Every structure is written in C-alpha cells, then in structure tokens.
C-alpha cells in the first residue's frame, strides 16, 4: 500500500517537473525564434487581450483598495484637474469634443476614451493608475513628477468626465494657471 502510494506521488511530481520544463522550453522557443508578433499594428489574440486586461483591472483594484480618497472633491480640484488633463492626458485619451492626437491612434492597446470608460473606475483607482502607470502599455506613471494632491485633482476631474458636454469641457481648466510644464 505504502509503496504504491509512494510511486503514485513520485509519478505526479515527475509530471509536474516535466510540465514546468515544457513550459520553460516553450517560453525560450517564443523568445528566441521571433515567432511571436509584437507589432503594434496587429492586435493580440482574444485570449492574450483578455488575459492582459483582466490582470490589469484586478491588479489596479487590489492596490488601489488601500487608498482613501477625500470624502468629496471641490470645484477648485476639478478645475485644477482639468488643466492637468488637458496638458497631459487629452492627446492620448481625448475629451468631450476633442479627438486624441494622430500618433496616439497608432498605439496598442489604444488609450481608451475616458469619457466612456471613466465610469468603470473609482477615484482611488484613477489616482493609482495615474500615479503608477501601466507597464508595457504606454500609460505613463505621473507619480515621480506630481504631488499626491495634484493626482487627486486629476482623479476629481476624471470622475466628472462621463456625460460632460464639449462646452463644459472647453470652459474648464482655463482659470488657475497651476499647470507649470
Ligand atoms: C501616451 C499616452 C497616454 C497618456 C499621456 C496617458 N495615458 Fe492613460 N492610458 C494609456 C493607455 C495605452 C491605457 C490602456 C492601458 C491598458 O489597457 O492596459 C491607459 C489607461 C488609462 C486608464 C484606465 C482606463 C481603462 O479603462 O483602461 C485611466 C483611468 C487613465 N489611463 C488615465 C490617464 C490620465 C488621467 C492621464 C493624464 C494624467 C493619462 N491617462 C495619460 C495611455 C496614456
């Protein structure tokens, strides 16, 4: 009894080692043969796209969970956030009545139109995304160059984006002169 259970366990262990070796060989094959197309002109397969976007959204949610957003955002924060958005985000993410820059249309993944997508993210998640960026996607990290208070201003503005009209958008972010770059 003991012996047959022992050889069964050994068989499983050998199977796991073999599977790990095959996975490693497959990775090396892909890395060295050039068989995987990394072109930004062609989308990932549906499975790889699903894997990346699901990993990305759960990674952001898990890390942003620890952040406490301010109880309410003031109009002054939305105004200051709009100025940052127009200077640093609009060319990739577009805005009400404003298209993304021509070069940003060649990016993959495509920077989403935040007017449509912002409602899927909590302000603490937007804060985290803007502070840390998303590796290997083109979404930059702004945490090195901006104070947390400025990043909350941006989150305050992004929360307002869904449903914003183009004239409201045009009027915002003109008054403060706080964006120094
Ligand atoms: C150079 C282009 C670029 C700039 C500039 C940029 N982003 Fe992004 N952003 C991206 C890309 C690409 C993604 C998609 C990442 C992904 O799907 O993995 C993204 C994703 C996001 C997301 C998540 C949206 C979603 O549904 O996937 C938010 C929120 C966001 N960016 C906010 C901002 C804000 C706010 C700024 C300005 C402070 C900004 N981004 C600047 C390229 C950019």
From TrEMBL:
Highest rank taxon of the organism: Bacteria
Key words of the record: Heme, Iron, Membrane, Metal-binding, Transmembrane, Transmembrane helix
Protein name: Cytochrome c
Keyword ATP-binding among record annotations: no
Keyword match Transmembrane: yes
TM stretches of this protein: 12-32
Signal peptide: none
Domain Cytochrome c: 76-162
One Pfam match: Cytochrome_CBB3
